[in-house]
Amino acid sequence: MSLLCAETGKDIEFGEVLMAGTRCDAEFYSALSQEVLKLIPEPAKSSIPCRHGDGGVDIHEASSERNFNGSYTIGDFRLGSFLFSIPKEVAERYLPRYVEQYIKPIRACA
């Protein structure tokens, strides 16, 4: 199965930069492509991970193997080192689908 970007819904082609978004208050991570993350301005990025309950997103390196169709495969998708975090407001602006799917449902359960 292909690894899809949680924001665009598109396959992430093998060899492209692969990253993952996660939160400290939920045990999950999902793939994000460089296509969307490169739009986030440098001043909006923090070198400090998000704190529990603040609604931001931590961005990590990620890795995976090549799928038969030339994209990454979901089967061995792994979270790597922390790169930067973005606050809730930045996530809502640059990752609206990601926020809708992964952040708002968790907030509703809290």
Provide a descriptive summary of the structure in words.
With 110 residues, the chain is α+β, with helices and mostly antiparallel strands. The chain has one domain. It has 3 helices and 4 strands. The chain has a 4-stranded antiparallel sheet with strand order 2-1-3-4. A hairpin with a 2-residue loop joins strand 1 and strand 2. The N and C termini lie far apart (32 Å). The mean pLDDT is 89.
- Strand percentage lies at 25-35%
Gap between N and C termini, in Å? 32 Å
* Biggest sheet features: 4 strands, antiparallel
Strand order of the largest sheet: 2-1-3-4
The strand count comes to 4
Output the structural class: alpha+beta
Mean pLDDT: 89
Elements, N to C (H/E) = EEHEEHH
Shape: globular
Count of individual domains: 1
Poorly predicted runs: none
Count of runs of 4 or more consecutive helical residues: 3
Radius of gyration in whole Å, from Cα?
13 Å
Helix amount, in percent?
10-25%
Can I get a quick summary?
This protein has 110 residues and is α+β, with helices and mostly antiparallel strands.
Topology readout:
Blueprint: E1 18-23, E2 26-33, H1 34-37, E3 57-63, E4 78-86, H2 88-94, H3 96-109
Antiparallel strand pairs: 1-2, 1-3, 3-4
Helix pairs in contact: 2-3
Features:
alpha+beta; 4-stranded antiparallel beta sheet; 3 helices; globular
